[in-house]
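Example for reference:
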Amino acid sequence: MQQHRTGHETGFRRLEASGDLAGWAPESQKAKVYDQILLDIILGELAPGRQLDEQGLTRRYDAGLAGVRDALGRLALEGLVVRRPRAGTTVAPLDLVDVRQAFEALRLIEPHCASLAASNAGAADIAALRAAFDGAEEAARAGHSRALIGMDQRFHAALALATGNLTLAKIVIPLQHKASRFWAYSMTDDTADERIEEVQRHRALADCVARGDATAAYDAMLKVLGAFFGARVRGGRNDAATPAR
């Protein structure tokens, strides 16, 4: 069994304290506002093309104006909102070409991230991966898409951070956001059993990381990405007009 290194955990804590991880720490107030707006965009509750009023968002999320503006700035960098001078901010359109390109990038990068996480993950990283889908079977059977997508976001963010490479994390996490946005528009076709199978693929990947098996983690991530990519993006689930709720 491969020995997990823990030095990167200390490094991430230093980065977080210095502000270099501002917004990436899930417990920070700014991150919570960002996460709420992000999830509503992914789910279509903030629909493509919708004008976003900053004051309205502060009331919607019970947040400060600075936090809302910070969140919109991050989302603009990710391409999930469009900000134009004097025209304001709107939710970006759902572009299938953009989604396909995001998946192509993920298929090149994220298996390597999984392999690197298996080599570098510490105990806290593994605990975060394993906890990400707590209660997922119940959510899948109940059709709670918001809960499932939130779990998926936490899992992939935890995996990216477990690599110990902040540059990779900053690349992969926004790509996953784009992928999840399309997932929300297409998962209305999924059965509860299909959603549970998806959760199980993620849990198998977490097991590979936990035992330090870099090769198995790489292959497990390919299965996670391949199942989604084949069934939805290549398979033609392109006509979804409304998101899952």
Remarks:
- The CA atoms of residues 40 and 179 lie 14 Å apart.
